[in-house]
Amino acid sequence: MSGDLPLTTETEKVIDSCTLCGKCNIQCYFQMEMAPGEVFAAKRKLFKERQKTETIQVWEIDDVLAGLLDIVGENWAFNDPTILTSYATFGSLSSQEITPAYVVLPKDAEETAAIVRLANQQGIPYLPISSGTNSSNIIKEKVILIDMGRMKTLIINEREAWAEVGAGIIAFDLQQAAMEKGLRFSIGESAAGVCANQVSTGIHSFFGYKKGMMADHYIEAELVSHEGEVLCTTSAEAPQITTRPKDFYQPSLPYICTRLKIKLYPVEEDEAVIFIPFRDRMDGLRVTREIAKEDLGTGMGLVGVEVLSEFLSISEEDSENFLDIAQYYLKINSCIMMMLNAKDLASLKQKFPDLTLIDRSAMQRVIQGIPAITGPESMALIEDVMDEDKPYDHIFGDMLEYFLKQIEITEDEVEELFEHIDNKPLRKALTRSYFDKEYSDPEYWFNYRMFSPRFLRTHWFFSVMYFTDTDNLGLIEEICEKNREFGELHDLKNAFCYVMPIDGGKRFFFEYEFFCDQRDEDMLKRLKKVFFLLANESRRMVKTEKGIYPVLNTLFNGLNKKDYYLYSNFDEET
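Request: output the structure for the sequence above.
Response:
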């Protein structure tokens, strides 16, 4: 609309690429309360208006682009501003929107290696991206952006339980293909590229509780070096992390991963997903550790109630309402989300008889009924028990079925939820889809890790991550308190995200979130101040405390072995 972007032949292709079928609106609204189809329709209308008075340009090919086209072929390399703009940085620690100088999409490792050699010859930095979901402050100068999206290799060996995936395969696609064969992998964010996620930090997932992290996930990796050579490494040959936790080095990308042979695991027929609420996070941490030591379950994590509220709720308003009720009426501070088979479930009930267990069916009905949870009937029920020590024991125990009936929503009431949407076809589609499993089934969410985007409904989230020992639970509380203190000091929304046990309960992986509008310069300045304080606090804690390992030191070491990082060189003299 501003006219800053010229009309080019690529603009026209982008405009025509959307059929305006509206299918993207349904999933995007359930995740983010957005309707991207409306944006595409507006773009098409605007393009036609500008086309009346402007000439559509063919962008000139320079020497660098010509070299890239020689490698990848026509239509796979660009310097056209329409294409470059679509790769602008987002979610970064800079409010400035920066675009690359060139974008190129190789089809395999050999083309990737040739691009790297060309970039080196031209003296231009290059940067690989996958799905682009974590492009955090990475385009800082003239750069050749290497989009791995063409590498769509996806082969599943059902008998030997592995998959071969190209760098263009996202986690959801791999999980869907694997589960059709009764297998799964330890999924990262559903929209994340599998290879990029593995290289970055080694795929963090609640399945990592049993299946490990970093080199534990893969069998073989195809890599392109900075010199433009194609290499191959196996997990058995995986390098150790070359720094100790105390070193605080600045990570850099050591190679580009173009293909992975990754491990898959059988899906058991009698699996169940359960939720276990806690009033006190320390109790949640203790139980999480003890369950891990008992080796129960397939996947598990302790989730903060703020994050859980976002995760479960279809709208931001519902999320705020649910959070108020969970925190102040039901006194829920955190909640274990866990997948386990029937045998482990029976053992859990026997070993931990005092826990409140909410099963998949009940939680699905809670999720579908969240818009009605502030109604007079359900609130009267909640207020009756709110003065108890653990009100959730009653609501999700002896009163569960009655409570679920109070928040049950009819199809007519579902239609009312979407009355505010002007787009009539979208309104009808959302009403029809409301009870579909993709939007309310905890088991589906657990397997596909679907609803992390809901964290972004108000602001982008910036994560601070650690490994910690589990023999000092107070360490987690100390870290949380410092994160909260620094967030409040600089007026930034923040929340405990989750803790996942690994290695039989010996270690925790821990994530804390800060929320910030990346286009607001003042908020970004405050966020940078928070990160400065946290960096210094982490240095202090590493020097004075035993058992804290900042994840920053493992960044871009996701193909390496974690053992050296977590189990070696604690002695300052060695």
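Residues 1-58 form one domain.
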